[in-house]
Design goal:
about 45% helix; alpha/beta; single chain; 10 helices; Rossmann fold; globular
């Protein structure tokens, strides 16, 4: 196996504690669209959100609103505003040791990319609030690629940006993909990453991550150091 030169991480549930922030923002959004609180409809929609964690949020809303792009965009805008409000209030925190972990990866000559199912507006607020901008090399939001997870587009875009900004020549054989959802694992597999690492700190179980193609399952992202030697 080739030496790892670039580590590509998801955010919520992988490097930052989700603590149901996605669900809370989602529920606020769809209630704002007329879904009744404490209703079976809300419960059903929430179940779908949990099952599709890691996927592009506009795609999730398109499914929930039966392909109606106008309604999906309205709901998505409400979700973005609600999630940014939560992040701005300091409710999103990194997992313990993540910043030091990023520094250690950089010390080892391993680049760091952040990808997310969130749009750029949310990602920028997260990177700023968590003080990650000096610690990472590149970031890619799902709004910046043709297809969100489980498609590999964000992974390929991360490699492209990393190579352009650093002058490196990293290939897919030299990356590790780390995430907490089945969609993360599927995108890593589709990209051809030799290491697709699932972490059980977020949405999906070890069994679910392995079924989606994880080559290794860890408790948390910081354990990756031991895997990389």
């Amino acid at each position: 196996m080739a030496l790892t030169k670039l580590a590509i991480f998801d955010v919520a549930g992988t490097t930052a504690k989700d603590d149901d922030l996605v669900v809370r923002a989602f529920q606020k959004a769809v209630i704002g669209m007329g879904v009744e609180p404490d209703s079976a409809d809300l419960a059903e929609k929430t179940d779908y959100v949990n099952a599709t964690m890691g996927q592009r949020k506009i795609d999730v809303f398109l499914h929930l609103f039966d392909g109606d792009l106008d309604l999906a965009n309205q709901a998505h805008d409400k979700f973005v505003a609600a999630y940014i409000e939560l992040v701005s209030a300091g409710e999103l925190e990194e997992f313990e040791g993540i910043s030091d972990f990023f520094r250690e990866l950089r010390n080892r000559g391993i680049g760091i990319a952040i990808t997310t199912g969130f749009p750029r507006e949310i990602l920028d607020r997260i990177l700023t609030n968590l003080n990650w901008l000096p610690l990472i090399d590149v970031s890619v939001a799902s709004s910046e690629v043709d297809e969100g997870r489980p498609a590999p587009d964000m992974i390929f875009r991360s490699i492209e940006l990393f190579n352009v900004t650093t002058g490196a020549n990293v290939s897919t054989e030299e990356i590790v993909v780390v995430g907490d959802t089945q969609a993360d694992m599927q995108s890593g597999v589709r990209a051809g990453a030799p290491l697709v690492v699932g972490v059980t700190s977020g949405a999906h179980s070890a069994t679910e991550l392995a079924a989606a193609g994880a080559t290794t399952v860890l408790i948390g992202s910081t354990e990756l150091l031991s895997l990389l030697g």
